[in-house]
Specification:
Length: 424
């Protein structure tokens, strides 16, 4: 390999390594940036939803437990928003460090490349006269050698032009990095101001929440009565669902002839109610198969807007110290008169009314069952087939807000619904 060819290879290898390292570093940051922006967008949507629901709870003349739940959720959203903005500031600092490093690498490599290019030009100038080139060509021993020497000179000239273009490209990249660094500094300053404002907003939310908690703390006796009433309603609901499932399981074991008669009797009892389909945008769900189990973490929410205001299982009461409460499902606080949907294809197994939980609909999905409690109205009938996202009713008010209780049972086992619902 000739010296000129070696210099050419060395030049392009250095340039390629530089460009590759800069692009790779930026792509890694871009992945983090993309994820952060996605999380910020999702959290902002939660804040906007919670704001609507909070406004609905504040229509009540007196403080309610629903307001406390709504404030708890909005405060958590605001804290998450501030945390994400802080993450943004940290990411910008990382981006700025990468930009500074890339800028310095570009400067150093550009200086080295320019020096190497200058040396090549200087060496080439010593033998660049037309006489020398002609002598080089016509001293060939054959026509083929003459052609090869001509081709070599042409390639050498083109390589020099290509090297110059590469230097210009790196110079442009250097300029872009410098501009990006200035933009990042401005954005970081803007985020610092945003953090200050959101911190003030959070403090105001906490202040309002504390005022409500103080007012409710004076009604401890009333709240305890409500807790006992809710416990009685939950017990009634638990007994109802257990009884409904027991009957359904027993019917599976009925002898063929008797089972056929049972099915016919159920058909006669069926209420002819038209299934109302959700709007097209609401029906856009991604279920993988006809199996309820296979759609864990994919099920649509039973309401379009809302948040989990009380989680599954046993936990401390949000106001009363030492008082424990239990939930066989999850409470979802939602908008006024929100439409309630079926989360999966199934058959309406039972429709009942329970004091304290209003209307209740139970839907069978094979050996899984979903329960929708605290409904204000019901749009389906017993034994009616429903599809995912079919409208089954509307949400009623409870504790000063629109709220439903949603449960998932696997035969007689009560499951935590949250891992089954799709992420929002």
């Amino acid at each position: 390999m000739s010296l000129k060819t070696l210099n050419k290879s060395k030049f392009f290898l250095a340039a390629l390594m530089l460009v590759t390292s800069v692009v790779f570093g930026q792509s890694q940051i871009a992945k983090s940036r993309s994820q952060l922006e996605k999380e910020k967008k999702q959290n902002l949507a939660k804040i906007n939803q919670a704001r609507k629901i909070l406004a609905s709870t504040q229509k009540e003349k007196s403080s309610t437990l629903g307001q406390v739940k709504a404030f708890n959720h909005q405060i958590a959203n605001k804290e998450q928003q501030i945390a994400l903005i802080n993450d943004d500031v940290k990411l910008i600092s990382l981006e700025m460090r990468e930009l500074i490093k890339a800028r310095e690498d570009l400067k150093n490599q550009l200086a080295a490349l320019q020096k190497e290019y200058a040396e090549m030009i200087y060496k080439a100038s010593k033998s660049s006269s037309k006489i020398t080139k002609l002598s080089f060509l016509f001293s060939s021993g054959s026509f083929n050698e003459l052609f090869m020497r001509y081709k070599y000179l042409k390639q050498y000239s083109e390589n020099r032009k290509s090297q110059l273009q590469q230097i210009n490209r790196i110079s442009e990249m250097l300029s872009q990095r410098q501009k990006a660094l200035v933009d990042k500094k401005k954005k970081q300053e803007g985020l610092a101001a945003e953090i200050n404002q959101e911190t003030k907003n959070l403090e105001e939310l906490v202040k309002q929440q504390n005022a409500i908690v103080d007012e409710l703390s004076k009604k401890e006796g009333e709240i305890k009565k409500e807790i006992e009433s809710t416990r009685a309603a939950v017990k009634d609901l638990n007994n109802l669902i257990s009884s409904v499932i027991s009957k359904e399981v027993a019917s599976r074991k009925t002898p063929p002839k008797s089972r056929k008669e049972a099915i016919e009797n159920r058909k006669k009892e069926e209420t002819a109610v038209r299934v109302v389909k959700a709007p097209k945008e609401e029906a856009d769900i991604k279920l993988v198969s006809g199996s309820f189990r296979a759609n864990r973490a994919r099920l649509p929410w039973p309401v379009s807007e809302g948040f989990v205001s009380d989680h599954f299982g046993v936990k401390s009461h949000p106001l009363l110290k030492g008082v424990m409460i239990d939930n066989n499902g999850i409470d979802i606080q939602t908008t006024e008169n929100a439409t309630v949907f079926s989360v999966f294809d199934g058959v309406v197994l039972d429709i009942s009314e329970i004091p304290g939980l209003n209307k209740v609909v139970a839907i069978q999905h094979g050996d899984y069952y979903t329960v929708y409690a605290n409904l204000n109205s019901v749009n389906v009938g017993i034994n009616q087939k429903v599809g995912a996202k079919d409208i089954i009713g509307s949400a009623a008010r409870k504790d000063g807000s629109s709220e439903i209780n949603f449960q998932i049972w696997h035969n007689f086992e009560k499951l935590n619904p949250e891992p089954w619902l799709s992420s929002r």
